[in-house]
Each structure stands twice: as structure tokens, then as C-alpha cells.
């Protein structure tokens, strides 16, 4: 785009800043509430209190004695929902799902984009069509399958259905199509097989696209709610969203702890996003995703 | 002669064995994904269709009941001279789902405007991008809990803001007057915007029917209707003032009232969907528009607004189209998490969507057959909506 006038620029900054503030305020409020004492949230007189009175510590009664605690909501919440377990479960499930989905998608996409075989286009169309099937249609039968296999309430039930995706295949295929064919030919002359081409040529060239779908898959799995809710029963298998949901049911009046738990659930994904965000636009632009 | 023949033959065999190897490799690469696709999509779809014709509570054997599930889901019966739906809840939840989907175009417009702003050459783009993407990145249970708390009528952020703003504004009379006038003006503008878009839609249809109305007629209609809107607002000025001050003094219990629960959820969805994947898609599409087209438009004397409508909008229309279809597909299946965590589907079922109804039917009442029928209803609606959008989009999208 061309250069902007000063007036337009100022206008743009004002609008962007106002919007940015409205995006951040709920999170700031979350942070603010999470370090307040339970009594402080109800002081509704005279506007909103952003910085709690006792910023670094609060007083709690333990066995009838007054004890000064540091950022008490966090350790309390940490213990109340067994957060380490939730974190480990979420990380384990998300890593497995991501590894599985990304690797199966890469292989299928390579096949669709770079190899010729009978029935390719028809099969690809079938893949595209499945993107339209609502998850709710397949969910109940998949549940029944897992029930018959006796896998309800196991890690397999959380992980395996997430390992295959038509969407990821589609996006990677679009990206692989845009790669130049000469490199592939050169690799072939050097004696590379198909696995070699995939590993030495296609994957290194597709880092932005792979990083993008890796991040999205990971975040999707991290936030997954309905399926884990359906297939997990025991506390030992709860992922973070399920753990939070139980906490809501038990403990919703304890806002300060709620916000502390929410804060701890949100931080890892935000960090992941900040690390990976430089890839996104590049990855999507080059994959020609979005109906182009 | 014979030598070349042999060469030909061998190269041919070589080629065919190469092709064979390629095919085998392709199937090998496809196999894992294809197996997953078969086990977790293809077979379940068939099973689900079968289940929709049964009564089954998981514990006993499924009983084939033919079309009964669909009949009780979709049909009407006579009841004391009135036609009553067999399952009135289903129709209410369908209405809720469609109502909530009206937020999709709003979110799309927000994403587009954001992408347009972030596509300018200004400093701090990365910072703004990160900030705007925060909500969609952290979307999930934690965020819904946060919003449930924000909407809380007593201690929620929203009502605290409204109350303290109201206390300041209605303390002085001139400020209160100014604020009322400002709100009335905005309110009027929204109504006029709706009128104008309805009119332009009408003129678009007339154009399709080869019936052209003059530009001045359109303008006069807009001007007259805006005048009428403002006259009406001015006439009801006093009651408008009272309503506003009451509202600011005692803001509603957002999630607890039938009339506010859905708009509140839509507002939250809007906040969360401005940044996010749609905005990335728009940004990528905008960066794909060749500079030369803008330069050509500038030579033709196009201004900023005109450039948008004649270059940018047509060039990114495939993306808009894609986002719209995906939004419709996702919208039909949404609302589960909000209902489960924020509202429990209430008040009086006003935030229960089809997806939540399906979950309750399947995993709380264990009526798997009926739930499958609901899921097939969703599937068929998605399919039809997609086809319609496809058809309409084909006319609106320009692929050049």
C-alpha cells in the first residue's frame, strides 16, 4: 500500500490502540482479580479497583492463626485442581495428537501434491468433502467404537481420533503444490527415493506451513473440550479444560482462585503463539489457503 | 534398428515400473491418514445414519424404529385444534443456533477491518497483531470462565464499568444531555445503516431483474428515512433519556435474562473473533493483491475508498467466500462450550444450541438414536447452506 497522510496515520493509531485496549482489558482484569483477596472483588463502590490493596501478600487463617501468604490464590488453586497433573495430561495429549496429525498429514499431502497415482483426484475430492461432515455426526459412533474396544477412559481415546485430519492435509497439499519441481528432480538424480525427497527437499522448504499447522493443531488439542469430556471419567486423565470445568461446578463463587487457575491455563498457549507467530502469515500466504 | 527397438522396450518397461513404484509409494504415504479417515470418518458416518433409525440407550440392544426419530424431531401434530411441534425444544434450539450465527458476518467485518489496518505500513504492527490475536489464541474454557465473570451482574467488569460511567455522566445535567444526544445519534445511525443496506440490497435485486432505479431516488429515500428516524428519536427524547439513565444506573444481569443472554454471547464471540485465523487469512489475501493493480487504479484517479471497492474487495472475495462457508459450517455446530460452562443452556433454554441439545440427548439422556437424528439434521442443514453459499458466492466472487 502507498504512503499514508499524517492525519490518517494518527486516526489509524487511535483506532488500533482503542481496539488493542479492549482486547487486553479482560486479561488484565483476570490478572488483577487473580491476585486479589476474595473479599476485595465485592468492593463495588467507587469504580473498579485494578491494583489490589495487598499487592504481594494476603492474610489467611490457618488453624485459627493468621498467616501471611504470598500470592495465595495461585498455590491454592494449584492444589485445588491438581494442576501439575492437568498440565502433564494436556501436554502429553497435545504433543501426541500434534505429532500424529502433522506426520500423517505431511505424508498424505506429499502423496496428493507430488505423486501421480490412479484415483488421486477423486480421492482428494472425497477428503475435501469430509471436511464438511460435522464432528457431531461421527462423534457418537466413534464413542461407541471406543466403548467396544474398552478404551473409554484411556489416553488412547483422547489421542487417537485427533491424529487424522483432512484440513491439515488440504492445507499442506496446497503448500506443497507451490514448491518448484526442479529441486525434486535434482534430488532424484542424486539418487533420492520418495522418502528422501520428502525428508530432504519438501519438509525443509515447508517450514512455515508445517509450523503453522503444528501450532494450530497443538492449540486445538490443548483447548479441546467436548471429546475429552465424553471419554474421560477418572480424575487422573483430566486435561486442563476438563479440570477447569469441574472446578467451575464445585467452586464458582471463589472468583479469585478461578481467575488464578484460568490465568495458569491460558499462559502456555499465549507463549506458544508468541514464539510461532512470525510463521503464520507467511505459511498461509504461501499455501494459498483460503479458497484461492 | 533392433538396437533402438530394445532401447525403446527397456525404457518403456522402466517407465512402467517407475509408475508402479510411484503408485505404491503414494498409497504407502496415504495409508496412515486414509486408515484414520476410514475408521474415524467414513465408517462412523454410515453407523451414525444407521443409528438415526434406531432407539438405543447404549445399555440394551438397538431397536429399529424406522423414521420415528425424525418424525418426533421434525413433525407437527394436532393438539386441540392447534398444530404443535412434536419436539418444541428442538425448534427453539434451532432458532437459538441460527440467531447466534448472525454474529458471523459481524465478526468477519471486524476481521477484515483489522486486517486492512494491520496491512498498512505503520510501526508496531507485530505488537498489534499479537495483542489482537490474544483472545482467539487463548480461546477455551479459561476464557469462557473469565467472560462468565465479566458478565456477572454484581461484580462483573462490564457492569462495574457501566455503573461508574453512569455515576459520572448523570451527576451533571449538561453532560447527561450531551451523552443522551450522542447515544441517540449513534442509535439513529445504526437504524439508518440498516435501512440503507436493505435499500441497496433491493436495488441490487432490481438490477438483477433488469429494472434500474435512478440514483437520486435511492438517495432521497435514504435522506427521507434518516430524517424520519431522527424525528422519531427526538419525539421520544425524554423517554430515551430515562431509559438510558435507568440502564446505566442498574445494568442488566446479562447472562441471566432471556432477552440479553444471546446478545451477550454474540458480543463475546465478536470480541474473540476479530483477531484469529480469519484475520490471518484476510491479511494473507491482502498481501497477495498485486501492487500494480493499485497503481493502475490510481492512474484512473481512484481514491482510497474507491480503490477498496474496485480492487481490494474483488481480489479478496474468494477469501471472504471461504471464511463465510467455514463460518456457517462451524456456526451450526457451535454453542456447546458456552452452554456447558457459562449458562447451562439457560435462562429458559435461550442459549441452548443444537450442539448442546445433541450432547445432552446422547450423553446425559443416553438416547443415542435421537441424538444421531439431530446430528444428521445438522449435517443436512450444513450441506444445504454450503450449497446455497456456494451458488450465491459463485456469483459474487471474482476469481481474477
What secondary-structure arrangement, pairings included, does this model have?
The complex is a heterodimer of chains A (292) and B (400).
Chain A: H1 6-34, E1 57-62, E2 65-70, H2 73-80, H3 83-114, H4 120-130, H5 135-148, H6 155-159, H7 166-177, H8 181-189, H9 194-205, H10 207-223, H11 226-231, H12 240-251, H13 255-287
Antiparallel strand pairs in A: 1-2
Helix pairs in contact in A: 1-13, 2-13, 3-7, 3-10, 7-13, 8-9, 10-13, 12-13
Chain B: H1 2-51, E1 54-55, E2 63-64, H2 68-74, E3 76-79, E4 82-85, H3 88-101, H4 103-118, H5 125-137, H6 141-150, H7 157-169, H8 173-208, H9 215-235, H10 237-249, H11 258-273, H12 277-287, H13 291-299, H14 304-332, H15 336-343, H16 354-363, H17 368-396
Helix pairs in contact in B: 3-11, 3-14, 4-11, 4-12, 6-15, 8-9, 8-10, 12-14, 13-14, 14-17, 15-16, 16-17
Task: Assess the beta-strand content of chain A as a share of residues.
Answer: under 5%
Rg calculated over all Cα atoms of chain A: 25 Å
SSE sequence of chain A, one letter per element: HEEHHHHHHHHHHHH
**Percent strand of chain B:** under 5%
Number of strands of chain B: 4
Amino acid at each position: 500500500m502507498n504512503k499514508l497522510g499524517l492525519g490518517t496515520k494518527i486516526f489509524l493509531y487511535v483506532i488500533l490502540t482503542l481496539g488493542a485496549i479492549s482486547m487486553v482489558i479482560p486479561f488484565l482484569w483476570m490478572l488483577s482479580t487473580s491476585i486479589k483477596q476474595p473479599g476485595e472483588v465485592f468492593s463495588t463502590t467507587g469504580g473498579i479497583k485494578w491494583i489490589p490493596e495487598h499487592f504481594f501478600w494476603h492474610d489467611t487463617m490457618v488453624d485459627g492463626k493468621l498467616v501471611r501468604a504470598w500470592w495465595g490464590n495461585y498455590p491454592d488453586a494449584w492444589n485445588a485442581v491438581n494442576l501439575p497433573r492437568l498440565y502433564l495430561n494436556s501436554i502429553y495429549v497435545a504433543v501426541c495428537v500434534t505429532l500424529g496429525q502433522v506426520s500423517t498429514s505431511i505424508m498424505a499431502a506429499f502423496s496428493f501434491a507430488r505423486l501421480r497415482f490412479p484415483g488421486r483426484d477423486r480421492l482428494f475430492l472425497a477428503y475435501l468433502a469430509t471436511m464438511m461432515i460435522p464432528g457431531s455426526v461421527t462423534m457418537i459412533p466413534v464413542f461407541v467404537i471406543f466403548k467396544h474396544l474398552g478404551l473409554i477412559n484411556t489416553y488412547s481415546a483422547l489421542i487417537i481420533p485427533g491424529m487424522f485430519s483432512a484440513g491439515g492435509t488440504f492445507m499442506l497439499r496446497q503448500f506443497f503444490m507451490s514448491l518448484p519441481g526442479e529441486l525434486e528432480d535434482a534430488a532424484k538424480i542424486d539418487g533420492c527415493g520418495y522418502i528422501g525427497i520428502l525428508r530432504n527437499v519438501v519438509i525443509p522448504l515447508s517450514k512455515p506451513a508445517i509450523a503453522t499447522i503444528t501450532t494450530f493443531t497443538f492449540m486445538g488439542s490443548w483447548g479441546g473440550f467436548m471429546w475429552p469430556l465424553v471419554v474421560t471419567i477418572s480424575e487422573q486423565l483430566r486435561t486442563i479444560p476438563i479440570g477447569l470445568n469441574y472446578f467451575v461446578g464445585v467452586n464458582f463463587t471463589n472468583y479469585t482462585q478461578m481467575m488464578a487457575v484460568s490465568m495458569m491455563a491460558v499462559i502456555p498457549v499465549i507463549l506458544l503463539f508468541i514464539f510461532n507467530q512470525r510463521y503464520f502469515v507467511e505459511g498461509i500466504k504461501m499455501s494459498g489457503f483460503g479458497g484461492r | 534398428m533392433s538396437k533402438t527397438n530394445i532401447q525403446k522396450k527397456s525404457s518403456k518397461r522402466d517407465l512402467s515400473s517407475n509408475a508402479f513404484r510411484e503408485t505404491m509409494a503414494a498409497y504407502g504415504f496415504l495409508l496412515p491418514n486414509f486408515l484414520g479417515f476410514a475408521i474415524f470418518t467414513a465408517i462412523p458416518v454410515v453407523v451414525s445414519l444407521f443409528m438415526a433409525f434406531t432407539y438405543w440407550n447404549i445399555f440394551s440392544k438397538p431397536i429399529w424404529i424406522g423414521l420415528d426419530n425424525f418424525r418426533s424431531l421434525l413433525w407437527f401434530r394436532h393438539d386441540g385444534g392447534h398444530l404443535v411441534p412434536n419436539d418444541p425444544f428442538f425448534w427453539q434450539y434451532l432458532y437459538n443456533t441460527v440467531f447466534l450465527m448472525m454474529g458471523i458476518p459481524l465478526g468477519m467485518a471486524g476481521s477484515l477491518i483489522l486486517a486492512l489496518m494491520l496491512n498498512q505500513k505503520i510501526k508496531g504492527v507485530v505488537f498489534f497483531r499479537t495483542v489482537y490475536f490474544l483472545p482467539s489464541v487463548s480461546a477455551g474454557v479459561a476464557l469462557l470462565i473469565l467472560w462468565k465473570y465479566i458478565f456477572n451482574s454484581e461484580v462483573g467488569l462490564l457492569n462495574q464499568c457501566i455503573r461508574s460511567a453512569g455515576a459520572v455522566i448523570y451527576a451533571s445535567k449538561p453532560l447527561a444531555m450531551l451523552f443522551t444526544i450522542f447515544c441517540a445519534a449513534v442509535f439513529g445511525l445504526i437504524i439508518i445503516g440498516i435501512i440503507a443496506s436493505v435499500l441497496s440490497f433491493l436495488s441490487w435485486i432490481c438490477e438483477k431483474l433488469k429494472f434500474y432505479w435512478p440514483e437520486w431516488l435511492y438517495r432521497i429515500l435514504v435522506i427521507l428515512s434518516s430524517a424520519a428516524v431522527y424525528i422519531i428519536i427526538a419525539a421520544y427524547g425524554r423517554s430515551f433519556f430515562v431509559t438510558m439513565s435507568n440502564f446505566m444506573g442498574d445494568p442488566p444481569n446479562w447472562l441471566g435474562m432471556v432477552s440479553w443472554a444471546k446478545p451477550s454471547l454474540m458480543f463475546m464471540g465478536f470480541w474473540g473473533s476479530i483477531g484469529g485465523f480469519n484475520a490471518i487469512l484476510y491479511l494473507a489475501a491482502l498481501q497477495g493483491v498485486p501492487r500494480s493493480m493499485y497503481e493502475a487504479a490510481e492512474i484512473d484517479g481512484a481514491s482510497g475508498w474507491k480503490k477498496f471497492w474496485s480492487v481490494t474487495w474483488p481480489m479478496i472475495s474468494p477469501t471472504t467466500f471461504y471464511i463465510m462457508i467455514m463460518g456457517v459450517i462451524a456456526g451450526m455446530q457451535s454453542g456447546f462450550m458456552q452452554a456447558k460452562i457459562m449458562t447451562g443452556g439457560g435462562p429458559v433454554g435461550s442459549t441452548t444450541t443444537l450442539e448442546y441439545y445433541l450432547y445432552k440427548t446422547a450423553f446425559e439422556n443416553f438416547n443415542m438414536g435421537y441424538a444421531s437424528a439431530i446430528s444428521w439434521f445438522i449435517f443436512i442443514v450444513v450441506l444445504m447452506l454450503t450449497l446455497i453459499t456456494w451458488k450465491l458466492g459463485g456469483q459474487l466472487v471474482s476469481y481474477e
